[in-house]
Design a protein that fits this description.
49% helix, mainly alpha, single chain
């Protein structure tokens, strides 16, 4: 094999490995309750 094909294969393997690694990471977080002051002006019709 030529050196160019080996370099392309290595780059593809690194990219595919990175995609698989990132897809298996657990990034779910619990929702955080936020309290915000809301004016009642918008509720009056």
């Amino acid at each position: 094999m030529s050196r160019f094909i080996v370099v392309i294969l290595v780059i593809l393997l690194v990219l595919i490995g990175g995609i698989v690694f990132l897809s298996t990471r657990s990034t779910e977080q619990e929702p955080v309750r936020m309290e915000k002051a809301v004016s009642l002006d918008n509720l009056t019709n």
